[in-house]
Design a protein that fits this description.
With 462 residues, the chain is mainly alpha-helical. Helix content is 74%, strand content 0%. Bound molecules: phenylalanine (PHE).
């Protein structure tokens, strides 16, 4: 696949803003951003913690009702400005004559993306280490207790965890330092096909070896008695997290999207692909969990304990473990680059320094905070921020507060503040569909986000 960088012709865009010309580049990059640890690591374990199918159903409704319209709005915001998320929001504010204080809204996606990256890289680092363990044969013939021991052993060893985190952050920075075209577009071109192949292999594996029917029933037979306001709030946060919404990732990728590409079609495809892949990963993980009598509610360690155990007891299991954890690592990498890009793009617009230097500084700072998150599993487990460890606090603040707020910013700025003819021009679709989109981002999304956030924080109950 060939990509070239061109000068953007978009009004108001930076004169050297890159555009991706490959026909599939935006689709693959946005899908790469969306499909990540959220699908493979987080979706199975929070589904397990929240009792299965009812939670899944709420998540699906959020993806369809809020996710898809926001995805279109966020792509539209990015492509029409061809600037970083902060500048996109600030430009609209100036154009509208809005108070300077509202520029704060532009900081939410910027801060959100980088704060997610701090702990995201730690988990992605676990997957790199698990590739190594699999290659070393650690999981051959392992039993449930042994698999748990490997995982808790990892949580206890700060040095090893920091090593994984460091290598992963370095890979992320390496791609981003090379730029949106030579770095992101080019690596996505081989990452995504590889990823899809691995998902298919793993699904085939789970169909033939795990308790597939039980896995299906668990994911698709809802029991609504298990639904709490906190679960609804978690499903909303996760729908946004999984679709990469509200954090500037999709907005910055939208700014590299060529003009002739159709945002409604591409955005909807990305959202649906992400959802299908999350469900697909549920179908890989739960059959294995049930086959080995594990607890679906095991928490963040779920895939790290269940998958090696299942594979470790099969012929060629080590190879499947390597495939699975490479899948996790590659999916995480195609997401982490989209978490670093918004900040690098934002600084690049403002400071006359080379992109590699900016990347190293931003990635370095993120890496340092990530180390604190890694240490909160062991040496620093006594340190609490509002009662939660550093890792959990970063996860909570970004997942339950910054993500929904970022979604609100996308909804309000694309639905209310952005010039109506400018967004109409971006979203090439029938008038009827555009009206539905407008109702969704103007009224439905903001209302639901506010209700769910207040419910999740325990401020209102329903
Ligand atoms: N969507 C990614 C995942 O599921 C995480 C992500 C969130 C990426 C927000 C970018 C922005 O792993």
């Amino acid at each position: 696949m060939r990509e070239e960088m061109t000068k953007s012709a978009a009004p108001g865009g930076g004169s050297d803003h890159p555009v991706w010309h490959g026909r599939w580049t935006l689709l693959m990059a946005a899908t790469g951003s969306a499909v990540g640890l959220g699908n493979i690591w987080k979706f199975p374990y929070i589904t397990g913690e929240n009792g299965g199918a009812a939670f899944v159903l709420i998540y699906i409704v959020f993806v369809l009702v809020l996710g898809v319209p926001l995805m279109l709005g966020e792509l539209g915001l990015g492509r029409s400005s061809r600037k970083s998320p902060l500048s996109t929001i600030m430009d609209i504010n100036r154009e509208r004559g809005l108070p300077k204080g509202l520029d704060l809204a532009g900081w939410i996606p910027q801060i959100g993306s980088i704060s997610i990256l701090t702990f995201y890289s730690v988990i992605a680092g676990w997957s790199l280490l698990y590739i190594l363990y699999s290659l070393m044969g650690v999981f051959s013939g392992i039993d449930a207790a042994g698999s748990e021991e490997v995982f808790t052993g990892l949580l206890g060893s700060a040095g090893v965890m920091i090593l994984g985190h460091t290598v992963f952050m370095a890979l992320t920075a390496f791609i981003i330092a090379r730029g949106a075209v030579a770095g992101i577009a080019r690596s996505i071109g081989w990452l995504m096909p590889l990823l899809l192949t691995m998902v298919v292999i793993m699904l085939g594996y789970s169909m033939f070896s795990g308790e597939f029917a039980r896995g299906v029933a668990y994911l698709f037979t809802p029991d609504f008695s298990k639904v709490t306001p906190a679960a609804i709030s978690e499903a909303l946060g996760h729908a946004f997290f999984s679709l990469s919404l509200g954090m500037g990732a999709i907005m910055v990728y939208g700014s590299y999207m060529q003009n002739q590409e159709n945002i409604p079609v591409t955005g909807t495809t990305v959202s649906l692909l992400d959802m299908v892949l999350a469900l697909g990963m549920g179908l890989v993980v739960f059959p294995v969990v049930f086959a080995y009598g594990l607890e679906p509610s095991a928490g963040p360690g779920l895939i790290f304990q269940s998958v090696p155990l299942a594979m470790g007891n099969l012929p060629l299991g080590d190879i499947f473990n390597v495939v699975f954890f490479s899948l996790v690592a590659f999916a995480a990498l195609s997401s982490s680059i989209s978490l670093l890009e918004p900040t690098v793009a934002m600084i690049e617009e403002r400071v006359q320094t080379s992109r590699p230097v900016i990347t190293v500084i931003v990635a370095g700072g993120t890496w340092l905070v990530g180390i604190a998150a890694a240490l909160s599993f062991n040496h620093w487990d006594e340190i609490k921020i509002f009662g939660a460890g550093i890792f959990d606090a970063l996860d909570f603040v970004s997942g339950q507060i910054l993500l929904p707020l970022g979604g609100l910013v996308v909804a309000v700025w694309s639905g209310w503040y952005m010039n109506r003819s400018a967004i109409r021009e971006q979203l090439v679709m029938s008038d009827a569909l555009f009206s539905i989109w407008e109702i969704a981002v103007r009224y439905v999304t903001p209302l639901l986000i506010v209700l769910v956030m207040l419910g999740g924080l325990g401020i209102i109950s329903f």
